[in-house]
What does this fold into?
Amino acid sequence: MLTLFIASTSLKTTSSKFNRTLQNFKMFFLNSKVGIASSLRRERERLHLKQSEMADQLGVSRSTQICYEKGSTEPTTGYLRSAQSIGADVFSILYGDDVGSGSVDWSRLQQCAEAVEFFCLRFAPSCPTTYRWKMIRELYQALPKSNEIEEPLSLTENLALDTLKKIWASYGK
It folds into this structure.
């Protein structure tokens, strides 16, 4: 079972903060013109690598790299972690250049990816793969960082599921 943590003295307060955070990021991420595909291509070019060179360094085939950059296939968190190890700015890949820089909490990102995958398998099987990374980004941003947690409270199913239902309900709007 996935475990996502949030901290709060009361569930009501956390839920209110969570909803505000979700709304703030919803506008940017759902309407973002910079997707994972174009961000990957831009980052590869910044590193002065050809598609085949990046693919070799990240342990994928050239055709997989091409699919990632076209947006026909979405990269895995393992791929993104490998990209970071060769100097790619994964925060920029996920959120675009205009958001600023930051570091990626890999454990939190993986949990978000797994939560979205579970949600899509169970509740939204028609969800396109290109929209899944948008869902992962929103969930990642909506959840507090591990260093902000005062008293961990496991609300995996309720919090993540409610958040993902809201994100999915806004799909296409």
